Predict the structure.
Amino acid sequence: MPDNKKNTSKKILIVEDEPSLVFTLKDTLEAENYDVIVVTDGAEAVDKVKKTEPDLMILDLMLPNISGYDICKEVRDLKYTFPIIMLTARDQEIDKVTGLNIGADDYITKPFGVKELLARIKARLRRANAYSKSGPVEILKLGDIKIDLNESKVVKPGNQEEELSTREVEIIEFLLANANKPISRDDLLEKVWRYEYSTNTRTVDVHISKLRAKIELNPDDPRYLVTLHGVGYMLRLN
C-alpha cells in the first residue's frame, strides 16, 4: 500500500514525448501518491521547472526541439539541485557519461521495469531529503571556507556563496566519511554514482574539478580536495 504521507508533497516532473510511456509513468506515480506534472515538448521543460519547482525530474534524452542533455545543463546552470533521472533508448556508455557529467543523478535505459524506476526515484528522493532544511545541521569548515551540507552551499570569505548540487553533496559526504584516506575513482563511481567503473570515463574527474573550484580558495593548488596521482582523490583535514 502506498505511503500517502511520505509521497503526497513530492512533485515529480516528467519530460517525455512518448504518449504510452507518459500514461504509464503518470498512472504509476499517481498511484504512489506523487504529484505528477507532465511536459511533452522539451522547449517547455525549463519554464515548467521554474513555475513548479519539482522535487525530482524524469527526463527523456531524445525530445522534440531540444535534447535532454541541453535541458539538464540549463537546469543545473540555473542552480536547481533536485535529482534528475534520465531516460533513453540509447545504451552507449558515452551517452551515460555525458548525462552524468552535465548533472544528471541517475540514468535508466528503455525498456525498463516500473518497479526499478520507482526504487530509483525513492532512493534519489531519500538522498535529496537528507540534505533538506528539515534535516540536521551539518557544517564542515575547511580553513576560511564553510560548507553547509544542510543548505547545500559553500560560504567563502566575504560571504561569497556557491550552490552545491545533490551529487556534489554526496561526493563530500563520501569523502568526509573517508577523510585523510585515498579514494579511487572506482570507489567514487561505485559508491556515489552506483555506476559500473570504466577506464574510459572522466565522470569523476569532471565533478571533482567543479567541486574543487567551489571549496578551495586556490583550486590550482588545492589544500583540502587533493589529487593522488595514479590513485584517486583525498579529502585532507589535517
Observations:
- The mean pLDDT is 84.
- Residues 45 and 51 are 10 Å apart (CA to CA).
- DSSP finds nine helices and twelve strands in the chain.
- Residues 4-130 form a domain with the Rossmann fold fold (CATH 3.40.50.2300).
